[in-house]
């Protein structure tokens, strides 16, 4: 079954700043279809252009794009120690601009790497949830 329509196919990303935490706060994503991937790539390609329109436009587009693929989070604990339930509309309350960028580019990188790995090994698992969560690549600015 293609990853984009497989309901069990998920991947996880841990922000670089959270990699040493036990258990690490983790964001869970579904895989993108080619059409969705093109939309994701377009946002990543337009970061500089969107910055010229102002930070609010850029951050809004990044949040909107991440929400298309995000299906949950794990081990997200608030400042008072309680578990934060998954609510995609609260993403802007959890992340700063650099973390938002790190996640966006991490999703793009993961989808590309996973596609390449699947080409090399047709017997790979349909879901990468059995693997450790990948730490997102660091980006310098949002």
Topology:
Blueprint: E1 10-14, E2 26-30, H1 34-45, H2 47-52, H3 55-69, E3 70-74, H4 91-94, H5 97-120, E4 134-135
Parallel strand pairs: 1-4
Antiparallel strand pairs: 1-2, 2-3
Helix pairs in contact: 1-3, 1-5, 3-5
Would you kindly provide a written description of the structure presented here, covering whatever features stand out?
The chain is α+β, with helices and mostly antiparallel strands and 142 residues long. It has one domain: rbstp2171 (2-Layer Sandwich). 43% of the residues lie in helices and 12% in strands. It has helices at 34-45, 47-52, 55-69, 91-94, 97-120, and strands spanning 10-14, 26-30, 70-74, 134-135. The chain has a four-stranded mixed beta sheet. Helix 1 (34-45) packs antiparallel against helix 3 and helix 3 (55-69) runs parallel beside helix 5. The radius of gyration is 15 Å and the shape is globular. The chain starts with 9 loop residues before the first strand and ends in a 7-residue tail after the last strand.
Multimeric state of these chains?
A: single chain
What is the overall silhouette? globular
Alpha plus pi helix count: 5
Low-confidence stretches: 124-131
Strand content: 5-15%
**Order of helical and strand elements:** EEHHHEHHE
Distance between the termini: 35 Å
Question: What descriptors fit this protein?
Answer:
142 residues; four-stranded mixed sheet; 12% strand; globular; rbstp2171; alpha+beta; 5 helices; 43% helix
